[in-house]
Amino acid sequence: MRRKSTAYRPISHLTNEVEGYVLLNEADPLGIVWHGNYIKYFEQGREAFGRQHGINYLDVHKNGYITPIVNVQCDYKMPLKYGDQYKIITKMLNCPGPKIILSYQIHNQNGALVCEGQTTQVFVNLNGDLALYIPKFYEDWKMKVDFK
Amino acid sequence: MRRKSTAYRPISHLTNEVEGYVLLNEADPLGIVWHGNYIKYFEQGREAFGRQHGINYLDVHKNGYITPIVNVQCDYKMPLKYGDQYKIITKMLNCPGPKIILSYQIHNQNGALVCEGQTTQVFVNLNGDLALYIPKFYEDWKMKVDFK
Amino acid sequence: MRRKSTAYRPISHLTNEVEGYVLLNEADPLGIVWHGNYIKYFEQGREAFGRQHGINYLDVHKNGYITPIVNVQCDYKMPLKYGDQYKIITKMLNCPGPKIILSYQIHNQNGALVCEGQTTQVFVNLNGDLALYIPKFYEDWKMKVDFK
Amino acid sequence: MRRKSTAYRPISHLTNEVEGYVLLNEADPLGIVWHGNYIKYFEQGREAFGRQHGINYLDVHKNGYITPIVNVQCDYKMPLKYGDQYKIITKMLNCPGPKIILSYQIHNQNGALVCEGQTTQVFVNLNGDLALYIPKFYEDWKMKVDFK
Fold first, then answer.
1. Which residue of D has its CA nearest to B24?
2. Mutation target among D23, D34, D39, D80 for the C interface, most CBs of C within 10 A
3. Is ipTM > 0.90 here?
4. Chain Cα centroid distance, residue D122
5. pTM score, two decimals?
6. Does B40 contact D58 at a Cβ distance shorter than 8 Å?
7. Is C85 exposed, middle or buried (0-12, 13-18, 19+ CB in 10 A)?
């Protein structure tokens, strides 16, 4: 599979932090969070980011678009255990094109980095057409939040 | 909460069996299937039942209804472990009203009963109205499959 | 399946409230929370209850026991939708025997009751033996929290 | 995050195919499989591969190792919908080092490619030490299955 290096950097003020506790149903027989559940934590971070910065899934939908994820990746550094408290730090990367690229870092209660990952989303209108240009509402949002 | 005794009995020919393997993501730190995941197995059984007997969710939807679950319950007898093979036996109960009541039994590879449960579904039309009578298409289906 | 009526009542000071947002991965094609995911919300409530009252899963384990769930049930009243904020109210019932019975009520952001359910847990020691009497540590905990 | 290009190629006879149906609980409000659930399908493929080729998680554990996932990635091409039947094709890549790299392709019932991804696993012994060399049992397995 193709793995490209991206040169995009986080936009320092477009970030969110949200916390949670590891539940029993999220941990596997080794007592650690099953690797696929971090993708749920990423979603928890992404939605908290969206609520904070006014770019939630429902905001996007109201403007006639959905933003499906076209790539996800995650590097695992150390495990979270059942009962641990975690913090998800979500950052928006300064991708100039018609895409939303978010990076995620998850830390445990001691501040250690547990994993980091990234999602890439595209804009698709309600007819199912991929947006080749940045939708107007998203340009407006970028202006408003000083995306650069 | 209210727990009623139901007198309904299984209809012997309206049954389905489907098998699967316990995946790592379904087992908890004790190495056994997390209790909530049996609700997913019930769905696996319910959908296999629907495919076999022509009463799938999409069949129902085509006729202008959805069938939300209004009650679920499960009694746990013994654990399934990671790697176990399981069999789900789904049976339709002879409820005469505008409801679908299915019972589920899950067995492990040695034939031991792991858990048993039940779901109750009602008919709601696409305007969101609860059906107080049995929808025509479901009456027809009951005739066709000799529901009694 | 057997459905017994329980006469146990909630102990008014042994309660917990915890809130969350419905995530996209928890909602189904109807845009509403998939019924099995309320069992996860019950766990979220149960663990928050355990942290508040000092009877967490890890507290129990330290004393040589696990507390597997032997029954779960849920009555659904109205749906939670993607993006909704929910509140889980967990209450301990005054069951006198060697069992933990918790009831759960989930409300949406308007205070409407979404669903209510119940879990029953038993005590099993680390050899896998079911406790027929209340373990000492749990008697002590009941004294401490004025369980009655 | 770092994204390296890997030059490893699939080993043509170390492959597995397994099929399934998309369940309601796996689909999101758009009626399509939630992106994180493909990571579960990858696990379904990985475990079917392990059963077929004798390198299951439990086989590995019996030899004193666990094989945690240190990287996962997935590229999404088109959606699977509720009710679709899917096929997971899992292939082992010819990585010469102390790692297991598997690639996954998921197709729908029409044979269209839905997504492709990759997982990387390392060997950790039961003391928690990362294996810097290939464990003996895995060398033996590679000989037996003609890994090259």
1. D43
2. D34
3. yes
4. 13
5. 0.94
6. no
7. middle
